[in-house]
Amino acid sequence: MTATRIAIVGVGKIARDQHIPAIEASPDLTLTATASRNGQVDGIPAYPDIDAMLAAEPDLQAISLCQPPSARHAAARSAIAAGKHVFLEKPPGATLSDVEDLCAAADAAGVVLFASWHSRWAAAVEPARDWLASRTIRSVEIAWKEDVRKWHPGQDWIWQPGGFGVFDPGINALSILTRILSGPVRLEAATMEVPANRASPIAAELTMRSAGGAPIHAVFDWRQTGPQSWDISVETDGGTLVLADGGNRLTIDGAPHDVPADREYPALYDRFAKLIAEGRSDVDLAPLTLVADAFMVGARVTTDAFED
Ligand code: NAP
Fold this sequence. Notes:
By secondary structure, the chain is α/β, with parallel strands linked by helices. Helices cover about 30% and strands about 30% of the residues. It has helices at about 15-25, 50-55, 70-80, 95-110, 125-130, 150, 165-180, 265-280, 285-295, and strands at about 5-10, 30-35, 45, 60-65, 85-90, 115, 135-145, 185-195, 205-210, 215-220, 230-235, 240-245, 250, 255, 300-305. It binds NADP nicotinamide-adenine-dinucleotide phosphate.
């Protein structure tokens, strides 16, 4: 089978750190072009925007969209209209209706749409899901606390409307949560702290409930200096499961469990290649729905101005 010719749109941090190495290592995919206003990849044809790329590279088969979420819908629509399969970085769009529109358009065009949630592919997530499947959940505590200056330096888009603020990393926790628990998770209340000079929250606290009625409490905070926390702790009738390091480390009642080697983005691209081979889309809106619900019912509290 010949490798699928794929392009990247939005050559920024995540494209360079993860997408390009994962595509280059994949036997199923060939990086054929990029579209980005400033970014380029050595030796790969580069275009200033997706429409110029689509016009010049008619043999492209798939497109990976790695820009900020607010830029993604228009680009995805162009790619789908040109008959290309589409890989969406997380979050898959700036709004739920953006993504629902893309699902309908991809269906009508007969192309594959993949809403990727990279944290779900962290090494310990599936072992955690398997272990929890036969236990009764009593409560869940999530702490997703990191230093925005370290992880998002100079990323102005992240503070703008549609940029998600602290939900940009927080949605990763919600993507794991909604994978490891069976049944839907419901948001009950939220509080968001928004810097006086910004449009998006720097911190958020969420109260949720599992399908079985267990309370779920989450704290997302971008003001964390020193050790960073990306931890989910689940109390069950059979002990306490802790997923640490963003889903990469698993302990049960304090005892470490062996997990497979970490290969988040290679696994995501294996999945995309498989979906293309099978002609199937994969779009789960559960994490984005919880974020949208938090913005709908959440109380907004103004906090100190934030300067990068
Ligand atoms: P980034 O470094 O800002 O890169 C995004 C690139 O998209 C920019 O360099 C820019 O390249 C292009 N772009 C197109 N339209 C844009 C717009 N309206 N505003 C700003 N840039 C625009 O961001 P990133 O960290 O790679 O994040 C991109 C997406 O990946 C986000 O959805 C994020 O949640 C997700 N993600 C990020 C990480 C991470 O560790 N950073 C991890 C996982 C997922 P040109 O100027 O060349 O057009």
